[in-house]
Fold beta-glucosidase.
Amino acid sequence: CESKTVKEARQSVRKFPDRFQFGTATASYQVEGAWDADGKSPNIWDHMTHTDPCSIDDCRNGDIANDSYNQYKRDVEMMRELGLDFYRFSLSWSRILPTSFPDKINEAGVQYYNNLINEMLKYNIQPMVTLYHWDLPQKLQEMGGWTNPHIVDWFSDYARVAFELFGDRVKNWITFNEPREFCYQGYGTVTKAPKLNIQGVAEYMCAKNVLVAHAKAYHIYDKEFRPNIGGTIGITIGALWYEPETENDVQLAEEVGQFEWGQYAHPIFSKTGDFPPVMKERIAAKSAAQGFKRSRLPEFTPEEVEIVRGSADFFGLNHYTTNMVYKNESLNGYYDVPSYYDDMEAKLYQPNHWSAGASFWLKDVPWGFYNLLTKITEEYDNPPVFITENGFATRGGLDDDDRITYVRGYLNALLDAIEEGSNIPVYTVWSLMDNFEWMRGYTECYGLYEVDYESPQRTRTPRKSAFVYKEIVRSRALDP
Ligand code: BGP
């Protein structure tokens, strides 16, 4: 007969629901390398890292990265070692369409993705494909990139090509990865490519064009492809949890959430087809006070509202951490220049006592994940939420107990949210392996597998966390 403690331990094991799916993620620029191989044209990350190398912490780039372009069989072998249900990766637009347009399909680039997908399917690992994970063809950037409304058509043409090429085998599609991050950091500031730095204006133009481009791609899939091949299509939004500093900041924290992720979620999932009311009102008022003749936040036309609302089968969520929020008193009224953070009227910070890894912004706060999941469930009438990224950065080494604590803590929070009624069928670790991290280069390690960047093959070695994740995936359970 079982001892009391063994019995208690067995009973306290938390099971994941039937059909729950486990995966890991990467993105094209961060792992593929082969930046100019076989006809691929440059994207904005190639351009930025070649013209301004030390905009990246270690002055390195993704020219070779993990060489996944050549090492894809090893990547699939790792997925098998982990026992994954699926693998999330992104397509490089400029590898498939070197002119950016569908006039010339690059067969060699297509072959790479076919090889990867077919190798995965051999072992019953499902592909989850992101169409756009930040690597815009440089030529399109030279025509304004995401600030040019014509990009809506350029993106839809690219999406249609991707659905035609891979739709027979890919059943889960994501249009965009984290639009706020590439719109705000790339167009509003100099943090990411293309470093446009026109704050308070360009990131909102980008946001609108991305939302309409997403919606068009969704409807192309829904009307032209889904009837014959099935499948689902959604968008991945990056969202932190915003915790009010005091009771007086509760409303403010809510508003910050509306700015930071409601900006993309509200138009699609609230069924209004429009930006959150707090953004519309606040930015219109500030724009007028600043002398603008119209709001810096562009308006959707009635036709755009129609296609944006409800344009996703699932809410893809990338979640990493939590920020505290308090009122930005220091601004004391209106700025005389547009600023996203002034529009938001808040300051954000993380207390020092929250435990951190290698990444300065990423602290281990699992209760924030639970709060965010239950908030999304309530706010948008319980959509399926696919966790498309969650993970922790270390400085390297195979003993990554911090990552193990983090993943287990966040999975516990996820199970709490499921118990409370949230519909969460998918969880994805960022990342399968170390890779080129935006701005940080190779100084931060997110991988379940360590990558040796000195070796020509970019040798991959499992960390301790890989064995822990493998056991979670195998047992479909978490012992608290
Ligand atoms: C997400 C991105 C990933 C990955 C991760 C780690 O925002 O979708 O591509 O890079 O964050 O982020 P960072 O490199 O900023 O630490």
User: Anything to note?
Assistant: Residues 202-229 form the longest helix (28 residues). The first strand starts at residue 14 and ends at 15.
